[in-house]
Amino acid sequence: MNWLGKIISAGVAALVAAVPAYAAGKFAPPEGCNVYVTVQMKSCQVSQHYRCAGDPPGDQWAVYLDSDGPYYMNRIDSETRWVESYSLISGERDELVSESDPASFTTLLATGRDDYDFMTESDMAEVVRYTGYDQLPGDKVEIDGVELERTRFDLTARDMDGATLWRRSGQQLIHRDWRIFFADREVFESPEGERTDVDDTPVTFAFPGQAGYLETKPQFGCDMMMTEVRP
User: Fold this and answer.
1) From which residue to which does the signal peptide run (predicted)?
2) Which pTM does this prediction carry?
3) Distance (Å, rounded) from C-alpha 79 to C-alpha 208?
4) Phi-psi sector, 113: left (phi>0), alpha (psi -120 to 50), beta
5) How far is 50 from 33, CA to CA, in rounded Å?
């Protein structure tokens, strides 16, 4: 069963109209949506970032693909608040349900720091609380001709009993005009304290009309990923 079939079988057929497709090996966004950039990242991933005419102003979507195809899709608003996300493997959906301190991209740009505290709930009734901060130390970065700024962040996910599910900390990248975060180098920590270094830094940005735009095949780090999983 392909990934779209899995979503349908999971009982979320209402999502079908919003799910992107492929056309001759290229990414095809839903009707009424336009991809503004395709990003190739390290660790064998590529992402498609698009906006849709029917969404609230400032909202945008991203779909992430690895060597096996699309696996994750999310929507954020103009303040980079997590609105909703989907696993394109299981079909599970998570949505924002409450905020005691909403994430604010505007606050981050204006003051150099933004703290947040919010909760999401999945359609499997799993509630997760996220607390953390983003900070701008003033480091500017240029990748493939695109000017970005590096952030420092710390994010912890907890269940409703307060038990830590995981913690992420390290660096991310932002684009002020696009009002978006990109991954950089970070550390993922499990509840048992096991730490894993992660590097999903962007390598190339492809815009409409450029080579690599709408490309669905990851280009960087895939050989390394195969080496890591080989027995």
Assistant:
1) 1-23
2) 0.88
3) 25
4) beta
5) 6
